[in-house]
Specification:
Blueprint: H1 9-29, H2 33-45, E1 49-52, E2 55-58, H3 59-88, H4 91-108, H5 117-140, H6 142-145, H7 148-178, H8 189-217, H9 230-233, H10 235-246, H11 251-281, H12 287-319, H13 321-341, H14 345-373, H15 380-409, H16 412-418, H17 420-431
Helix pairs in contact: 1-7, 1-8, 2-8, 3-4, 3-5, 3-10, 3-15, 4-5, 4-8, 5-15, 7-8, 7-12, 7-14, 10-15, 11-14, 11-15, 11-17, 12-13, 12-14, 13-14, 13-16, 13-17, 15-16
Length: about 450
């Protein structure tokens, strides 16, 4: 196995290429095909609620709560696993485990049905855990493979590769769904649904196949030669406590994390529910127009996000990370207010374009900004575990609030408008982050 030096182009490309491999989950499963398939099941069954754990619940709050539960589990297990990975020095093994768990769970979504809703939701649940669990270790590699001056660009490169790769697979899946007869699925609505099921399988295959390039070149971690004991299992929580305590000595990092926690809560919620919002709240016309419109919207977001990640990287070099993040959060405030009023497809397309521009930017810049603020340490996994736990807990809170407002008001518009509070708070907290010439 090659031992590439830190900062080498081949190592940086291998790291960034995992975004190409796993981003098909976030696009096809989380954002595009699965939400459409999920809502189509309810429509074909002519029901709006389903019985889960003895109670009836609407389709969108159900998926919101399931998503929140998965993120809560990820937030809990991340410090356990990162502690073991740092102690033993095999973070790549954990990254592989979650990669394969997520990919195989995506394949399991082929069997998703309302008749077996509990088992079906478990496939969705473990797919989400696999995706986000692998990102804990993937993100922690950034300061290991790249020098500080390289991190903004390589982070943006990763997101750009992810957006482009996932668009390629989505276009292939779109062809399967729109023209199922060409792929041997027959004709009509049932054939399109069958094509959607096979698109879930294609995500798992893509994810496993392309991740092998990253796994081949990424180092195992900081080798210690130590074995896991019962004491080490809880080591991750002790490390998180150590990271938390260290924040008192790093005001810049502490205040940035507080801001990130709040605005990331809103960003991730928007990303997770955007397609469900478009499916329910926009007047598309007939079924085919809705399917085509939603997919086009997702493609717009993905393609513009590539430009957004690149432009944000350039802007941060000129103006600093924190000022750019403040501007992006202000744009998010405007997006949420506008989204409350949109009703037509053209309005949704326009909003999707702006969302894509700031989505790519805020994700890549948030990750690299955190990496820049870290103290000199080899214990990068623990710091990124803390980052990921903060993000996941924020998502849990965001999805629960979103689902609750949706359930009691019967409209996703009210939930979207509520997110304005989080973005405005994020702006205020970012203004309190101490700045230097590099941020």
């Amino acid at each position: 196995m090659p031992n590439l030096p830190k900062g080498s182009n081949k190592l940086l490309n291998a790291w960034a290429f995992y975004d190409w491999a796993n981003s098909v989950y976030s696009l096809v499963i989380a954002s595009a095909i699965f939400p459409i398939y999920y809502q189509a099941l309810f429509k074909s069954a002519e029901i709006t609620t389903v019985s889960v754990l003895g109670g009836n619940i609407r389709s969108t709050p159900l998926i919101s709560y399931t998503t929140a539960a998965a993120f809560l589990l990820v937030a809990f297990i991340s410090p356990l696993l990162s502690g073991i990975a740092d102690y033993v020095g095999n973070k790549k093994s954990f990254m592989k485990f979650f990669c394969y768990l997520g990919a195989l769970s995506c394949m399991g979504l082929y069997f998703f049905s309302l008749e077996n809703i509990h088992i079906s939701l478990l496939f969705y649940f473990f797919g989400l855990i696999g995706f986000w669990g692998s990102l804990v270790f993937y993100n922690s590699y950034l300061p290991d493979v790249a020098f500080p001056e390289q991190q903004d660009r390589v982070s943006a490169r990763g997101y750009s590769l992810g957006y482009l790769g996932s668009v390629i697979l989505l276009l292939f899946n779109l062809g399967m769904v729109m023209k199922p007869e060409i792929f041997g699925f027959g004709e009509g609505g049932a054939a399109s649904v069958q094509a959607m099921r096979w698109s879930f399988v294609s995500v798992g295959v893509w994810w496993i196949l392309f991740s092998q390039y990253s796994f081949y070149f990424l180092p195992k971690g900081n080798k210690s030669g130590k074995k896991v004991s019962a004491k080490i299992v809880l080591n991750g929580f002790r490390e998180l406590k150590g990271v938390y305590n260290s924040l008192s000595e790093n005001i810049q990092l502490k205040r940035y994390l507080a801001a990130f926690f709040v605005y990331s809560m809103a960003v991730q919620t928007v990303m997770l529910v955007a397609t469900y919002f478009g499916e329910q709240e926009i007047a598309w016309g007939d079924g085919d127009a809705k399917l085509f419109g939603l997919i086009v919207s997702i493609l717009i977001i993905q393609l513009v996000a590539v430009l957004g990640a690149i432009l944000t990287s350039r802007a941060s070099e000129k103006h600093g990370n924190i000022p750019v993040l403040i501007v992006i959060n202000i744009i998010w405030v405007v997006i949420c207010v506008v989204a409350f009023f949109i009703e037509t497809p053209i309005q949704f397309y326009t909003t999707a374009g702006v969302v894509g521009l700031v989505m790519g930017g805020i994700q890549s810049l948030s990750r690299s900004t955190y990496s820049k603020f870290l103290p000199e340490t080899k214990d990068t996994t623990s710091y990124f575990s803390f980052y990921d736990v903060a993000e996941k807990i924020g998502i849990v809170i965001g999805m629960l609030i979103y689902g609750f407002i949706d359930q009691i008001t019967g409209s996703m518009r009210n939930s979207i408008l509520f997110l304005v509070i989080f973005f405005m708070t994020g702006v205020f907290l970012l203004l309190r982050v101490p700045r230097n010439k590099n941020n």
